[in-house]
């Protein structure tokens, strides 16, 4: 912190609170000095400031001190008066206006950075004209009646040697009529020091007369009180002063060169000596003597206890008097005025202790007298004395606060004094680094006058930036307030300056509303001063104002376009924020060797296409190469990493535009900014050995920046669209090169309102290129990703699939047509196609001609129209015939079969590979990529359960469960078929009883039963040995038309789709021969909602593969013997030979032990039955026996009817236990024999089979061993005649 004397306030006090010298001069004196372009007082003023006058002074004490710095203030007698308020206001306004005009050129520069502001020294942060304004503001309170430091200390009477009767002129000058009114009214003491000066003009007057007049003066007024000043010594009048001391008095440079033009260096030295002598020998001694006299006088009358009591007694009762704003009037001779003069004189002579004691003494008097303005003035001087003497800071601030508050209580009459007090108080706080407190003082003295408030608010803002740490938000906020006040007073230059400074705070913050406010008003104000280009730049900053209200946005946009139109030109703006471009949405789609049938195809991830094309793209030389490696071997080194496009084919750029506003915005003429450089030397390198070269402006043969379509080298698309409030829109822009060369997409441009051209460049943005090369990491830079090597035109295949529905039911079978076109004159050949989902799509034969409508062409008996199974398919790749070639406008139509295998949203991908001959050395082949999305709705869901027949080895019971999963539609069941020639199928019940309603309703479930028979010969496994008629593999499940043909499942497309289903539905045991495949054919009965599936299905096929025969036991068996035997029991017992046939259905070796049981619990004793002959029992019919079913565990059948008695005993007369080994999937026959003793019906189930599986097959079964009870088998034995 600097010393108070050297602080800005100390220097201000030295200039403002200093002795006043009243000047009275004759007109001829003024005429003499006006030859130099300045008046007499202006001539002397530069020499009234003494930095080291070194004068000894002794005031109230005997201690001597020396004055170093001292200042005189010179005023003409006519100027010693209280300034007119309106005139003073105009002077202050002029100061501000002039300062704004000087700063006008600085407004064209960039706004200051906050870092630069903070790094500047304190003296350079605030504008320099503030000090001059503050001084002018303080001068408006000069010569107040309640203060004494503006009272004249001396009077300088000046007469020219050319005046007639100079002595009389001196006397007439101090005439009462010429004195200021304050001296005549008694406010100021007219008895002041008088000093007489004779001015001699060396150009006009003679020396003799001057000497004579000077002698007469000294004899009349005294030798010490008279002086001579010789001036204007230059005869030519062209003297130029390098450091002109009067430069501050004139503003124009031309006038400055004339100031002091007839004053030589000697003249200036003489003036300087005159003022120093006048000050040191007259002014200071006079004031010193005056202080001593007043001090003695006041000490005698006011100091001491007795005098104080008298003063209080004399003033008793004044507290009860009415208060007035002006208070009592004090003349210069009153005790109060004398004490005030003593204090002010002591202050000007730098005896601050004496000044403080005087102010304290008089302060009480003024307070008791309720002379509040006088009281506030004394408190103000006390605060300054405390500060300048570097005494108590607390006392100084208390006095300033007290003075300020007292002035403010006086109302309007005291506001100007309060303003001056506030300025001094703020400077005092700033000198002590209390900037925050100083800012609050500036804020308190703003007042109601807007221009004055603007200056005070701006000074307060600079205090905030000087605090530690800086209070930047308050700094910016007060600058904005100040700028608003400036604009209200038509001080536009200052308003712009303050708002520009506020930008340094707000442009890097998230305070969007105040930032928009600042930018918008700066733009408006720049337009007012005629700087429209700068106005447009600032208004552009507020276009991204979606957070503002709709009304505010409309104001912003309206004023912006008004300003732009006033310029009369189109403004190109780089980085325009209306609309906002979503750079992350930038997608570049181009076609090199990969072409796309639709937009949907181009948006598919490259990895999907790569996995599909791995098997159809040929290898280069011996090793397998991808496209990137192929390209790198054919292209020059310079373009190995370049994107490649084909002349005549568009490069598409998708870019999202967003309207940040709530109001609609029309965007026109949106197009790409492109450059096409054609260099034949570089392009010829494609077929030659590459050599080093550079591509620059000097080597370019063509360089086009395209904004509209029509260039010969490339064509640009233009798009117009309207964005609603907050709307986003993805816009596709294209560029189509027509020549070979290097194409670069530089950016995008658009127009607003026909007067603003927005430009956005793509130099450093990430680009999503939809044709990434190969599998290795793409090393292209963002800029290179938008650069393309354009090669000559190539054939391009176009493809589409006719009649492909978007929605269909699961199982829906459709006949489609793939149409391929080549519009180029060059032929293509070697076509191959790969499909991502062969389960859904199967290619047909080109020779196929459907003479019968679909789906009748798929029925049996129409073999001439049936699509045969393809013979040219290798794995999943379909190869077109060798003779297929396309060129010109010819098209190829190829049949396709579509079947919706499973419900859900399915993405189908097709890749068609084709080759070109003698067209380009860069590309030998191209691929066409096609993508379609299908929505497959659920339809019928089937499940099958197969159970072995208990009495027939080759027969099985099938239970089919069907559920209609559709939301509304009904389906008709048409046909159920087994796949292959092994299994025959037959109905167990009539069709009408299976589904009486003829159709399966939505959500309805159905169960029905069938019998299937293994038609292989017993003991064989070769299906080829079976010769089953095809009609036995199908059953018709409808009765509407008995003559309607069944669908043929042996040939394509049903057979090929079933092969795909077998691979897709494959289970862990799919290699087991004990599995059955079924195909269910159905139709849509009717559609309750035609919009659900627009194209109704003709036929639906449902494939169920690898259905296992339900068996937890590896054995199946049957008992082979006659059902009825006649025997004469009279001669002997009946011995009956049986044969037990056992089949091993597992894949492992089975060990089987047969145990026979002679007595069963329920046949231990015959139960007689009345009415029946003993031994005769109920014999079940053959049909009833055939209908008996059993589960896989071999559970016993229900007992015969309760009316039938138990059979008499029989015995097993053969082996009681037999063990055999049965090979996997083989059959063994075991002979058995029983002995029957009487006629009757006998249950031959009294045997058990104990089985055990070999070790390697145990894992596939739930149990490795078990026991099976014999099936009931009834034998009827009759007595023969």
What this model shows, in words?
The chain has 1281 residues and is of the alpha+beta class. Helices cover 29% and strands 26% of the residues. Strand 28 and strand 29 (877-879) form a beta hairpin. Helix 16 (372-388) runs antiparallel to helix 17 and helix 23 (512-528) packs antiparallel against helix 24 (532-539). It is elongated. Residues 692-704 have a biased composition (Polar residues). Residues 1116-1248 form the TPPC8 C-terminal Ig-like domain. Residues 685-707 are annotated as: Disordered. Residues 606-760 form the TPPC8 first Ig-like domain.
Quick structural summary:
The chain has 1281 residues and is α+β, with helices and mostly antiparallel strands. It is built from 32 helices and 51 strands. It comes from Arabis alpina (Alpine rock-cress).
Write the layout of secondary structure elements.
Elements: H1 8-16, E1 20-25, H2 27-34, H3 40-44, E2 49-50, E3 55-57, E4 65-67, E5 70-71, E6 73-76, H4 85-102, H5 114-119, H6 122-125, H7 129-139, E7 152-160, H8 166-173, H9 181-184, E8 193-201, H10 207-221, E9 226-231, H11 253-256, H12 265-301, H13 305-314, H14 335-348, H15 352-368, H16 372-388, H17 393-409, H18 412-431, H19 435-444, H20 450-465, H21 472-488, H22 492-506, H23 512-528, H24 532-539, H25 550-567, E10 571-574, E11 580-589, E12 594-596, H26 599-602, H27 606-613, H28 627-634, E13 643-646, E14 651-658, E15 665-677, H29 680-684, E16 714-716, E17 719-723, E18 728-737, E19 741-752, E20 756-761, E21 768-769, E22 787-791, E23 797-802, E24 807-809, E25 813-822, E26 828-835, E27 841-843, E28 873-874, E29 877-879, E30 891-899, E31 904-916, E32 925-937, E33 940-948, E34 955-964, E35 970-978, E36 983-987, H30 991-994, E37 1005-1014, E38 1034-1036, H31 1054-1064, E39 1075-1086, E40 1100-1108, E41 1115-1120, E42 1124-1127, E43 1134-1144, E44 1150-1156, H32 1182-1186, E45 1210-1212, E46 1217-1222, E47 1227-1236, E48 1240-1243, ...
Parallel strand pairs: 1-6, 1-7, 7-8, 8-9, 10-20, 11-21, 12-32, 13-22, 24-32, 42-51
Antiparallel strand pairs: 2-5, 3-4, 11-14, 14-18, 15-17, 15-19, 16-18, 19-20, 19-22, 23-25, 25-30, 26-29, 26-31, 27-30, 28-29, 31-32, 33-34, 34-37, 35-38, 35-39, 36-37, 39-40, 41-43, 43-47, 44-46, 44-49, 45-47, 48-51, 49-50
Helix pairs in contact: 4-7, 12-14, 14-15, 15-16, 16-17, 16-18, 17-18, 18-19, 19-20, 20-21, 21-22, 22-23, 23-24, 23-25, 24-25
Region (Disordered): 685-707
GO cellular component, one term: TRAPPIII protein complex
Domain TPPC8 first Ig-like: 606-760
């Amino acid at each position: 912190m600097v010393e108070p004397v050297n602080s800005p306030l100390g220097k201000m006090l030295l200039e403002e609170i200093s002795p006043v010298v009243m000047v009275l001069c004759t007109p001829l004196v003024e005429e003499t000095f006006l030859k130099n372009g300045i008046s007499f007082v202006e001539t002397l003023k530069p020499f009234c400031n003494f930095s080291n006058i070194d004068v000894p002074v002794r005031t109230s004490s005997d201690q001597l001190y020396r004055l170093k710095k001292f200042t005189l203030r010179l005023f003409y007698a006519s100027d010693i008066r209280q300034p007119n308020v309106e005139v003073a206001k105009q002077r202050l306004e002029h100061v501000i206006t002039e300062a704004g005009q000087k700063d006008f050129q600085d407004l064209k520069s960039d706004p200051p950075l906050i870092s630069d502001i903070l790094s500047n020294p304190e003296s350079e942060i605030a504008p320099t004209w503030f000090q001059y304004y503050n001084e002018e503001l303080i001068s408006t309170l000069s010569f107040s009646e309640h203060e004494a430091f503006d009272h004249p200390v001396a009077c300088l009477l000046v007469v020219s040697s050319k005046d007639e009767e100079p002595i009389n002129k001196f006397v007439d000058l101090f005439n009462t009529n010429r004195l200021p009114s304050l001296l005549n009214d008694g406010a100021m003491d007219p008895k002041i020091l008088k000093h007489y000066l004779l001015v001699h003009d060396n150009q006009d007057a003679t020396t003799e007369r001057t000497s004579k007049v000077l002698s007469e003066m000294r004899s009349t007024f005294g030798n010490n009180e008279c002086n001579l000043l010789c001036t204007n010594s230059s005869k030519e009048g062209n003297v130029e002063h390098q450091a002109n001391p009067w430069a501050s008095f004139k503003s124009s440079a031309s006038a400055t060169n004339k100031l002091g033009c007839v004053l030589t260096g000697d003249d200036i030295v003489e003036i300087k000596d005159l003022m120093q002598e006048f000050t040191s020998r007259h002014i200071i001694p006079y004031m010193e003597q005056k202080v001593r006299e007043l001090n003695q006088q006041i000490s005698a009358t006011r100091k001491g206890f007795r005098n104080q009591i008298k003063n209080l007694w004399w003033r008793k009762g004044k507290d009860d008097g009415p208060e007035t704003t002006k208070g009592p009037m004090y003349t210069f001779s009153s005790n109060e005025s004398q004490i005030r003069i003593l204090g002010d004189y002591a202050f000007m002579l730098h005896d601050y202790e004496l000044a403080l004691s005087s102010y304290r003494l008089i302060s009480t008097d003024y307070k008791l007298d309720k002379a509040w303005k006088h009281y506030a003035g004394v408190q103000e001087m006390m605060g300054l004395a405390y500060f300048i003497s570097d005494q108590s800071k607390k006392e100084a601030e208390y006095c300033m606060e007290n003075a300020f508050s007292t002035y403010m209580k006086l109302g309007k009459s005291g506001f100007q004094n309060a303003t001056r007090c506030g300025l001094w108080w703020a400077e005092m706080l700033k000198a002590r680094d209390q900037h925050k407190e100083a800012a609050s003082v500036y804020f308190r003295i703003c007042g109601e006058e807007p221009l004055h408030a603007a200056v005070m608010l701006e000074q307060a803002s600079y205090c905030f930036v000087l605090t530690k740490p800086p209070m930047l938000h308050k700094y910016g906020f007060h600058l904005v307030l100040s700028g608003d006040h400036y604009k209200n007073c038509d001080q536009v230059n200052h308003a712009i300056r303050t708002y520009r400074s506020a930008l340094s705070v707000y442009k890097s913050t998230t305070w969007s509303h105040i930032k928009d406010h600042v930018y918008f008003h700066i733009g408006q104000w720049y337009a007012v001063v005629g700087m429209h280009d700068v106005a447009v730049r600032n208004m552009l900053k507020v276009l991204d104002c979606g957070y503002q209200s709709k009304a505010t946005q409309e104001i912003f946009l309206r004023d912006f376009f008004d300003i732009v139109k006033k310029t009369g030109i189109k403004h190109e703006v780089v980085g325009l924020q209306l609309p906002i471009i979503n750079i992350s949405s930038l997608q570049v789609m181009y076609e090199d060797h990969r072409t796309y049938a639709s937009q949907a195809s181009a948006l598919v991830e490259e990895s999907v296409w790569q996995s599909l094309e791995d098997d159809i793209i040929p290898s280069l030389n011996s090793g397998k190469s991808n496209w990137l490696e192929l390209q790198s071997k054919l292209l020059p080194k310079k373009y190995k990493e370049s994107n490649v496009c084909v002349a005549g084919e568009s490069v598409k750029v998708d870019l999202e535009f967003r309207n940040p506003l709530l109001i609609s915005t029309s965007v026109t003429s949106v197009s790409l900014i492109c450059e096409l450089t054609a260099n034949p030397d570089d392009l010829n390198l494609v077929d030659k050995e590459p050599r080093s070269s550079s591509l620059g402006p000097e080597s370019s043969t063509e360089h086009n920046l395209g904004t509209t379509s029509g260039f010969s080298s490339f064509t640009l698309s233009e798009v117009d669209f309207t964005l609603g409030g907050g709307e986003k829109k993805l816009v596709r822009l294209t560029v189509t090169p027509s020549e070979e060369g290097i194409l670069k997409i530089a950016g995008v441009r658009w127009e607003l309102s026909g007067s603003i051209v927005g430009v956005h460049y793509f130099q450093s943005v990430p680009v999503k290129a939809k044709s990434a090369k190969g599998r290795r990491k793409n090393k292209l830079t963002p800029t290179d990703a938008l650069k393309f090597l354009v090669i000559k035109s190539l054939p391009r295949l176009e493809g589409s699939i006719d009649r492909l529905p978007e929605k269909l039911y699961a199982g829906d079978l459709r006949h489609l047509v793939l149409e391929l076109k080549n519009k180029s004159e060059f032929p293509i050949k070697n076509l191959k196609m790969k499909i991502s989902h062969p389960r859904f799509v199967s290619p047909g034969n080109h020779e196929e001609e459907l003479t019968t409508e679909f789906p009748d062409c798929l029925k049996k008996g129409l073999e001439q129209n049936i699509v045969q199974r393809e013979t040219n398919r290798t794995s999943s790749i379909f190869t077109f015939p060798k003779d297929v070639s396309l060129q010109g406008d010819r098209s190829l139509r190829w049949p396709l079969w579509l079947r919706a295998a499973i419900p859900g949203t399915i993405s189908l991908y097709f890749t068609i590979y084709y080759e070109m001959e003698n067209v380009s050395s860069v590309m030998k082949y191209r691929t066409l990529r096609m993508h379609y999305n299908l929505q497959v709705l659920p339809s019928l869901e089937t499940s099958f359960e197969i159970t072995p027949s208990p009495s027939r080895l080759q027969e099985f019971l099938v239970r089919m469960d069907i559920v209609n999963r559709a939301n509304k539609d009904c389906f008709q069941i048409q046909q159920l078929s087994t796949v292959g020639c092994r299994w025959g199928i037959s109905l167990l019940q009539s069709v009408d009883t299976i589904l009486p309603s003829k159709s399966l309703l939505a959500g309805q479930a159905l169960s029905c039963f069938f019998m299937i028979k293994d038609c292989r010969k017993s003991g064989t496994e070769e299906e080829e040995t079976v010769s089953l008629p095809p009609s036995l593999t199908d059953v018709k499940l409808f009765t509407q038309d008995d003559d309607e043909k069944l669908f043929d499942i042996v040939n394509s497309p049903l057979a090929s789709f079933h092969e795909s289903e077998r691979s897709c539905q494959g289970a862990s045991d799919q290699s087991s021969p004990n599995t059955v495949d079924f195909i269910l054919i159905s139709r849509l009965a009717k559609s309750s909602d035609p919009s659900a599936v627009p194209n109704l299905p003709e036929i639906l096929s449902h494939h169920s593969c690898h259905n296992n025969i339900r068996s937890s036991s590896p054995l199946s068996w049957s008992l082979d013997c006659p059902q009825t035997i006649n025997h004469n029991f009279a001669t002997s017992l009946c011995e009956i030979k049986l044969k037990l046939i056992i089949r091993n259905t597992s894949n492992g070796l089975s060990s089987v032990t047969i145990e026979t049981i002679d007595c069963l619990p329920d046949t231990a004793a015959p139960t007689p039955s009345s009415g029946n002959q003993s031994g005769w029992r109920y014999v079940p019919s053959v049909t009833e026996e055939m209908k008996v079913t059993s589960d896989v565990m071999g559970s016993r059948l229900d007992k015969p009817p309760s009316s039938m008695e138990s059979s008499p005993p029989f015995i097993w007369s053969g082996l009681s236990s037999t063990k055999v080994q049965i090979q996997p999937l083989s059959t063994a026959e075991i002979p058995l024999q029983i002995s029957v003793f009487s006629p009757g019906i006998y249950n031959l189930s009294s045997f058990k089979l104990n089985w055990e599986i070999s070790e390697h097959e145990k894992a596939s079964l739930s149990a490795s061993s078990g026991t099976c009870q014999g099936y009931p088998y009834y034998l009827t034995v009759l007595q023969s005649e």
